[in-house]
Amino acid sequence: MAYIMVDVETDGPIPGDFSMISFGAVLVNEWLDTTFYGRLRPVSEKYNPEALAVSGHTREETLGFDDPRAVMESFADWLRANCKDRPVFISDNNGFDWMFVCWYFHHFTGSNPFGHSSQNLGSLYKGMEKDMFKNFKHLRQTKHTHHPVDDAKGNAEALLTMKRELGLKIKL
């Protein structure tokens, strides 16, 4: 299985009514050198200025971003090129990140290469530590900047630390 660490930035709380502004993905391997970055033009007139501000982009900037269909098709191509079998979606907030990526794949390409499942990095760490109050974020090396590739890379680094130092059994 190929684990793909994903992070999204949006202009609101749900897909369709609001838009995924950008996302980043990292193939989880020892080098973390295979990445994808997409910037997507909004799909809705609605947006939350506070949510958009987290991404560091203005509404005017996002209106010039790429066609969402083309970005999702490029991401599907990237997944096919970098994954020998079905990719596994993992993120630090899969409830949020997954719903946007899944919606965009189905809406713009008709299918989701990740299937119907996703994994949550935070829950994995809590289980490993047997403590629902533990947080994995100290395991990141790359600074959390809200640039989705940086954030996905930092989360992938945390997953690799769980493997190397905490004994996580995972085949990469």
TrEMBL record:
Pfam families: Rv2179c-like (PF16473). InterPro entries: RNaseH-like_sf, RNaseH_sf, Rv2179c-like. Residues 3-159 form the 3'-5' exoribonuclease Rv2179c-like domain. This is 3'-5' exoribonuclease.
